[in-house]
TrEMBL record:
This is RGS18 protein. GO terms for biological process: negative regulation of signal transduction. Keywords: Signal transduction inhibitor. The gene is Rgs18. It comes from the Eukaryota. It holds the Pfam family RGS. SMART domains: RGS. SUPFAM superfamilies: Regulator of G-protein signaling, RGS. It comes from Tyrannus savana. Residues 86-202 form the RGS domain.
């Protein structure tokens, strides 16, 4: 698949942008049941699949939009070093969140951070009236089977979330969000700290545009021993 609220400052998203984003996501994934058998439905699905694979489509995503590389280049080495203190620290800072989102885009796993951010925004809902449409959009976009940006959840978590979606509470996505958070913290975050783009920021180097690459497995520290970093990647 195809570029914050724990203990630190939250990511602010305006109400108007919230509405436009959820409207856009809703229109993208909504499909009337009685249209499933009509001619052209398969073609529409294929076009949606192709659209989701286009880099420019992900670049314009509201929740996952990381900004431009110039902003990341302005991060001081001291600030970048702090991102290595904890995953919470990385996500609590806008520049850190941007840089991590860019990194996930190179691994084609940005749906994880987008889902986490969508849940953070969901928990900022001020009235119960806001919960149902937001909950439905998040569920259809990230959780239901064959969702456009389906995240990797265990069967139990997915089932519990599915059952609670009809009468959503502010805590409806907590279990699913924590699962995805731990996945990123234990898997993607360590690789981000070992990546050339992050090491360049720590050393005060100016990164260039990242090269998209698929990963076939998780790396360990031993994989990088004796290997000289390639500073031309960014």
């Amino acid at each position: 698949m195809e570029n914050p609220l724990l203990l630190f400052p939250q990511l602010n998203i305006s109400a108007s942008k919230d509405k436009s984003y959820y409207k856009a996501m809703k229109s993208m994934v909504k499909e009337e049941p009685h249209k499933a058998s009509k001619p052209g439905t398969k073609q529409k699905r294929n076009r949606l699949s192709l659209l989701l694979q286009k880099p420019e489509f992900h670049e314009s995503d509201h929740l996952g939009k990381p900004g431009n590389l110039a902003k990341a280049a302005s991060v001081s080495p001291e600030e970048a070093v702090k991102w290595g203190e904890s995953f919470d620290k990385l996500l609590s800072e806008k520049a850190g969140l941007d840089a991590f989102t860019k990194f996930l885009k190179t691994e084609f796993s940005e749906e994880n951070i987008e889902f986490w951010m969508a849940c953070e925004d969901y928990k900022k809902s001020k009235t119960a009236h806001e919960l149902l449409p937001k909950a439905k959009t998040i569920f259809e976009t990230f959780i239901q089977k064959d969702a456009p940006k389906e995240v990797n959840l265990d069967f139990h978590t997915k089932e519990v979330t599915s059952q609670n979606i009809h009468q959503p509470l502010i805590t409806t996505f907590d279990t699913a969000q924590n699962t995805v958070y731990r996945l990123m913290e234990q898997d993607s975050y360590p690789r981000f700290l070992r990546s050339d783009p992050y090491l360049n920021l720590v050393k005060g180097r100016n990164p260039s545009r990242p090269t998209l690459r698929r990963r076939s497995r998780s790396f360990t520290v031993n994989d990088f021993q004796g290997v000289r970093p390639d500073f031309t990647v960014w």
